[in-house]
Write a structure and sequence with these properties.
Layout: H1 2-6, E1 10-14, H2 22-31, E2 35-38, H3 41-50, E3 56-58, H4 67-73, E4 76-79, H5 82-95, E5 99-104, H6 119-127, E6 132-140, H7 151-168, E7 174-178, H8 183-187, E8 196-199, H9 201-205, E9 207-208, E10 213-214, E11 225-236, E12 259-265, E13 277-279, E14 285-289, E15 294-297, E16 310-315, H10 317-325
Parallel strand pairs: 1-2, 1-8, 2-3, 3-4, 4-5, 5-6, 6-7, 7-8
Antiparallel strand pairs: 9-10, 11-12, 11-16, 12-15, 13-16, 14-15
This protein binds pyridoxal-5'-phosphate.
Length: about 350
């Protein structure tokens, strides 16, 4: 956070990966984020109710059907459609409020946003709407197209802000970019005039999925998934009988390793992305799973395991998202001491 502040950048703590978990949001606030952001209006509402003095941003373009709630609870929203802005304007007038909007530009990822050449005419029309404050312009990278941030694609945004200022004579106070993959540009000192970062994954997991890296100056030991063994048996590694499709409609592939010791864990695809788990104990390999079971090979494990023991896993973003959304996964919070050099240690969950 200090790193960003030193560069004149405020950070929006994005909570959508953890269903706006209020304990995690609180830690983000204590850590120094300037505001909180989430993609779901339900989460925006719970953040606002828990932290009324914190500004909250809706980071998905509002549904027309939720505009009233957006105006009531969100201080900012990210927008790309004039019809939505019109509805926001009308609703604001009715409620005697103003709402701050950030206009999203598609600088290449091909998810949300106006194409760059449409931005100035769009902003011109948006300026005519009452009770709306055009607070800034923004872009998202690394989400749909997996596009990596470059000096060039963020410069599109910076140049557009200049163009709006000179052609339409309004100030564009905020130039906002996300997600976590953008931190690489910050590290390489290539972020010019960007003054807001929207970051979720990096704060929570210390990783950036898009460029597939552990961010060296952040911690990766924040979340641990624990799952209990409900069956432990030696079995042949190959299934027996004709093979159709598995629980997820795929044809599974198996390698014959002879008889192996296998554990079944009481957790499955309903609760996590099975591919997104990494065992934290040596000698354990994930074989696969179904909706409610994960099968692991524990033959090479040094620890002696029994039914009722738990195994621990590190989670990636997708597995975290699903685990936080699953009501079947208990969330436990542990306070850990901050150390200057992050090594292994406790977790928050
Ligand atoms: C998800 C999202 C973010 C945060 O992305 P992370 O990669 O989790 O940091 C920021 N802005 C928008 C619009 C998003 O949808």
């Amino acid at each position: 956070m200090d790193f960003c502040k030193k560069h004149g950048i405020e950070v929006v703590g994005i909570t959508k990966g953890v269903c706006a978990d209020l304990n995690i949001a609180k830690v983000m606030l204590e850590g120094g984020v300037s505001l909180l952001g989430d993609s779901r209006i339900q989460n925006v509402i719970s953040l606002k109710e828990a932290y009324p003095s914190t500004e909250v941003m809706l980071i998905r373009s509002p549904m027309l059907s939720e505009v009233e709630k957006v105006v009531e609870y969100a201080d900012y929203s990210l927008n790309t459609e004039l019809s939505v802005l019109k509805k926001i304007s009308e609703t604001c007038k009715k409620l005697g409020k103003t709402h701050k909007v950030i206009i999203m530009v598609d600088v290449g990822d091909r998810r949300e946003g106006l194409l760059p050449h449409d931005v100035v005419p769009f902003v011109k029309k948006a300026m005519e709407l009452e009770n709306i404050e055009i607070a800034g312009i923004g872009a998202q990278l690394g989400c749909f197209g997996g596009v990596l941030p470059t000096f060039e694609n963020q410069k599109i945004l910076v140049d557009l802000a200049e163009k709006i200022k000179s052609e339409l004579h309004i100030d564009i106070p905020i130039i906002s970019v996300g997600g976590s993959v953008i931190l690489k540009l910050l590290e390489d000192s290539l972020l010019e005039k960007i003054n807001q970062l929207r970051v979720g994954e990096a704060i929570i997991l210390g990783t950036s999925s898009t460029d597939n890296r552990d961010i060296p100056w952040l911690r990766q030991d924040t979340l641990t998934l624990k799952a209990e063994i409900i069956e432990l048996k030696e079995k042949p590694s190959l299934p027996e009988g004709p093979i159709g499709k598995n629980a997820f409609g795929r044809t599974p592939q198996f390698v014959d390793k002879g008889i192996r010791k296998r554990a079944i864990l009481a957790i499955g695809g309903q609760d996590v992305s099975i591919e997104g788990l990494t065992p934290l104990t040596d000698g354990i390999g994930i074989l696969g799973g179904s909706s409610d079971h994960i099968i692991v090979d524990v033959t090479d494990s040094q620890t002696s395991l029994e039914v009722g023991d738990t195994l621990e896993f590190r989670v990636n973003y997708e597995a975290m998202l699903r685990a936080m959304t699953s009501k079947y996964v208990n969330k436990k919070y542990v306070k850990i001491k901050l150390r200057n050099t992050p090594t292994e240690g406790g977790g928050t969950k």
